[in-house]
Design brief:
two-stranded antiparallel sheet, 12 strands, globular, 29% helix, alpha+beta, 16% strand, 7 helices
Length: 258
């Protein structure tokens, strides 16, 4: 099994999947087809994630999640145009975005479970760290960062708002699975952690709680605002203003790929 085989299987899984449609919003489709990449489980950047200036010592390596881990499959789920367009207005999050954030995560979980079954059926062991009972978040830092894993796998780089900018932009969700199968890693097309960000600053005025400035994003301010959204829109929450109506919403600014 290679990346092409996995991509074909995932695309087939996504076709007309009921969890990717919101009936309450006129059968709104949440995600477009995922962008998938692979990292070697032995990539030295996984150890780098333990440093205080990265994620921190809490972050686990692939081998700590799965003995004998060989590869990490990472993916980006881009929000559809309908979800993105709805959230381009200033102010509070659009209803479409809120459904995309919560109901969309149910689809994300289903994809993780599908990949686990795909590898298991092929005779391999696999773990989705986010679904594992060892997964933890302490002081706003997790022991498995989907965004950092995506960077290692070659999906994209960080932005001023701390979103990830992929070839399909930044508006979407990430997921990953660790597997004890050798899969050829995806070549990173960048070298810097924020290489895809043009530093245009468009995300700064988009942030309702003013958590972003020229130096980056204050995660505590962002988190406190999201806690308010949880109360306001329970059982849903979200924001995503820094990922919409910005040049990196659906592309890498100034770059094109064949």
């Amino acid at each position: 099994m290679n990346l092409h085989d996995i991509t074909v299987a995932v695309e087939k899984f996504f076709q007309d999947h009921p969890l990717n449609t919101v009936k309450d919003l006129g059968n709104l489709r949440i995600f477009d087809v995922p962008l998938i990449a692979v990292a070697s489980a032995h990539d030295p950047l996984f150890e780098r994630m333990r440093m205080d200036d990265a994620v921190g010592p809490l972050h686990k390596t692939p081998q700590e999640w799965l003995e004998g881990a060989r590869s990490v499959v990472s993916y980006f789920l881009p929000f559809t145009l309908q979800v993105r367009e709805a959230n381009r207005l200033n102010g509070l999050p659009a209803n479409e975005w809120l459904y995309g954030r919560i109901e969309g995560e149910a689809m994300n979980v289903a994809l993780r479970q599908f990949l686990l079954q795909l590898f298991t059926d092929a005779g391999y062991a696999a773990v989705a760290p986010i679904l594992d009972n060892r997964f933890r978040v302490v002081d706003l830092k997790s022991n498995w960062s989907e965004r950092h894993v995506a960077f290692i796998a070659g999906l994209g780089t960080f932005s001023l708002s701390r979103s990830m900018i992929t070839k399909r932009g930044s508006a979407g969700r990430f997921g990953s699975v660790v597997v004890d199968m050798d899969i050829v890693p995806t070549a990173r097309y960048y070298t810097e952690i924020d290489e895809n960000c043009s530093k245009c600053g468009a995300c700064i005025p988009r942030c309702p709680p003013n958590a972003i400035d020229e130096s980056g994003k204050d995660n505590v301010i962002c988190w406190k605002y999201m806690e308010q959204m949880k109360i306001l829109y329970k059982p849903r929450y979200g924001c995503g203003k820094c990922q919409t109506a910005v040049p990196c919403e659906a592309v890498i600014p100034g770059k094109s790929f064949t």
